[in-house]
Amino acid sequence: QQQVKQSPQSLIVQKGGIPIINCAYENTAFDYFPWYQQFPGKGPALLIAIRPDVSEKKEGRFTISFNKSAKQFSLHIMDSQPGDSATYFCARNSGNTPLVFGKGTRLSVIA
Amino acid sequence: NAGVMQNPRHLVRRRGQEARLRCSPMKGHSHVYWYRQLPEEGLKFMVYLQKENIIDESGMPKERFSAEFPKEGPSILRIQQVVRGDSAAYFCASSPTGVGAINEQFFGPGTRLTVL
Predict the structure, then answer these.
(1) Are strands B29-37 and B43-50 parallel, antiparallel or unpaired?
(2) N or C end of chain B, less CB within 10 A?
(3) Distance between CA atoms of A55 and B113, rounded to whole angstroms?
(4) Do residues A50 and A59 touch, judged by C-beta distance below 8 A?
């Protein structure tokens, strides 16, 4: 299976800071790049997703930036809050095929 | 509109017993996916099913694991003769029918299996 490399593994930011999580993929034959948020003891929840025909997508405080030439995409969280503390997973897939996930980034936002 | 339902939420089995995990997809979804998550790790794909068909089982261990999605009723992930290494959280996801490039998967709350 094609891999998605996610970094950093963990991240600590102050409240109000802008954590950035990065993911890199191996080829361009994919149509959909979602991000999932997971709180302890819960299932992953779809947060925001992007297709490679756009370079940026914003939903509230969450922004995905997509760099097709570098085969990278990243998640930015504006004005981060303690309630954003969770594990974030990037993923990729094409059509009705299985999602391949990055290994996750554990974010802690401290007050 | 209820989300993806999984039961039981917690399951404890002794080594050698069988574990049955159930997943009811969201209404109108006919694609079901099972993932396994080990502590402090990401989600590993196991199997992808549509009604009465296994589409992709490339992530499923060759022995002791099986999955089904019957015409009626929930999808079942079955683990026979469980071993301690099977202890993990098992998540089910579903996506709507139809064609297209977007595969928006919605996850259930998971079943946490503990093997003693």
Answers:
(1) antiparallel
(2) N
(3) 40
(4) no
∠B91-B96-B97 over CA atoms, to 5°?
125
Any idea of the CA torsion for A56, A59, A60, A61, to the nearest 10 degrees? Answer: -50
Chain A positions touching B95 (Cβ under 8 A) are 96
pLDDT tens digits, A60-105: 999 999 888 888 999 999 999 999 999 999 998 776 677 889 999 9
Helix, strand, coil percentages (3-state) for chain A, rounded to 5, are 5, 55, 45
- C-alpha B49/C-alpha B76 separation (Å) is 10
Q: Do A98 and B101 touch (CB under 8 A)?
A: no
Report the largest interatomic distance among the alpha carbons of chain B, rounded to a whole angstrom: 44
pLDDT at B50 over 70: yes
